[in-house]
Amino acid sequence: MKGYPKHVATKQDFLNLLSQEEFKEQALEDLRKIYEAQDDTVIRVVSGSEEEGNLVTEEIENPMPLWKVKGFSSRQEVADLITRYGGKA
Question: How many domains is the chain partitioned into structurally?
Answer without folding.
Answer: 1
